[in-house]
Structure formats: structure tokens, C-alpha cells
Amino acid sequence: MSTPSRHALPVSIRALSKHYGTVKAVDDASLNIEAGELMTLLGPSGSGKTTLLMMIAGFSRPTQGSIRIGAEEIVHLPPHKRDIGMVFQNYALFPHMNVAGNIAYPLRIRGLGAAEREARVKRALDLVQLVGYGERRIDQLSGGQRQRIALARAIVFEPRILLMDEPLSALDKQLRETMQIEIRKLHDRLGMTTISVTHDQREALTMSNRIAVFSQGRLMQVATPDRLYARPESRFVAQFIGESHFLAVTPCARGLCYQGTDLKLAEPDKVAVVSPLLMLRPERLTLAPIGERATANDCNVFAGQVVERIFQGDSLLVTVRLGGGEMAHLRLQNRAGNAGFSPEAGTHVNVLLHRADAHIVSAEA
């Protein structure tokens, strides 16, 4: 994580709920966000992530719970007294103002003088790499440039925290991926406590120090991107973050088994998980011919038959029917000189999963 700026403060959310009649949009959420951290709230539509962001911003009043910025309780403060920068999904730029006027607006309503406004606008434009754009009209900007101006306006008055609501959703795929890196770099330079909302898993993995996953108003798991991807705690998180399939496994004398064979697990203590499932990530599986054990050292070995092999440009997607009838999907890199085993449909094979990648999740939330 980047070094927090001197203005950065932690955010503490405790037992926060928002109910609309019998509907629990956010249900008893508690979350600590460190000073200078970029935390992403991730989840499908209707999961509660945007409702939580709006409660932090002050645009929605919680049914119950606490929100603190540093040591200050802000639940009862109106939005304009929370000292929060906000980047909206549609940017909400003023079309009748030029770029400099848009960026200077929050400074003007705070009563800063013209010289100070000009200096801060120039510094903000430099931070978002748009020096010299101050006199341009908003309709002269590309989507990526408008997004940068919205960011500049949100940070120009040095807020205590920065909130971003689906900040890249209006951009095309290529520009969105470029801006993910740019926002991460900007955050690292500023060291500002930042909370972002998205439904895009790759965006969350690329930009965040940590990710909080929501489902149906409930906070499911909070972890770093690599931990969340490699060690999800439930089937929902494993399916929502990346591509996963699962094998139902059963307790046995020495731990957990699949089709009567003991499993070698990365975390042996996971045998106590309720309704255990073995997570299979396509890129973590490999293939070997039947009878070849040399490559299976410290691996779980599942016998099966290739159902289909699909060319996808940079990779081959191979589907194997395992002994229990479940389908295992493997993604094999397609490159020149690839010595990997890539059999045709109908071939009997072994599917290998290394112990380090053998992770158990719960079928229940």
C-alpha cells in the first residue's frame, strides 16, 4: 500500500444497515478502511455496495450503525460537512464551464481566493496529466479525459477521503483497462484514503489494496486481491472472483476425499468446513497421460475423459469428464513450442491439481 498522505484518515464502519421496509439493502456491515488505502466494494447489481457508498457520502441515511472518519462520527452530518471528494458514475461535469472552472468549483464554494484557486487547479491538472487543458470545453474532451477531470475536481480541495461510484463504467474496454492503471498510480502518488464501487472483478483486482465482496446486502469477505482470488471463503466469492468449478468432497479418515481418494490440501485445517467443495481454477489444472505419475508428485490426480477442446486464440479450453461425472475445465496456454499435453476429444487422461492450489470452500454463504 502507498504511504498515506498527511491528510489521509481511516474509515470505520460498524453494524451499518439500510432497510427499505422488509428489504435489507445493507445488512449489519462492519468494515475498517486504513488511512491511505484504496478499498473497493465489489458485488453484483443489488448487492448493497452502492448503498453503502451513498451512506458514507451522506446521500442516504442509515437505518442503524456508525460511520467514523478518523475519530469523528459522521452519520448525522450533511454531505457538504463531511469533507469528502466524490467521482460519480456519469462524472457530473458542468457543460457551461470550461475544464478549469469545473475543477475550481469546489474551491470557489469554499471561499478560496482566485490566486489559490488557480494554483490548485494547475496542480490538479498536472496530477491527472492534463496540463494545458484548462480552457477547453467539456464537450471537447474524450471519455478518458472527462474521467480525469472528474478526478481532478474531486481531489483539488484535498478531501479527507475520496469516493468513486463505478468511475470507469462509461468507458470502452481498452480505455477502461488503461484508466485502471492510471487511477492506481494516481492513488499511489496521493496516498489518499479511497473507497471505490464496481461490479467489474478485473477492475477491483487491478486497482485495490483490498476488496470487500458483497452479496444481497451482506459483507461476504474482505481480503487483498491475491488472497481473495487464491483463498476465497465461500462458493459465492470463488465464483464471483475469477472462473471456478467445484467438486463435492466428503470427510474420510485422514481428511477429505473425492471418489474414495484422499485429497492433498493447501490448508489441511479446512476439513472442518461446512458442506466442503474443492475449488478448481481452469488455469491451475494440468493434464497428463493415463499412467504417467512422474508429473503428479505432490498433486491430486483425477482420472477422466476429454469431452472437447476449444481453440480460444491465446489458450485452449479443454473440458474433461471426471469419474464422478463432474466436468473439469482446463485453460492451457497456446504458444509455439508448447510441450504440454493437449489431447483430442475422447482421450482418457489424468487431471492434476497441485497441493498448493487445492483449496476448500464452503457451499454455504
TrEMBL record:
The keyword Nucleotide-binding applies. It comes from the Bacteria. Keywords: ATP-binding, Nucleotide-binding. This is ABC transporter ATP-binding protein. It comes from Taklimakanibacter albus.
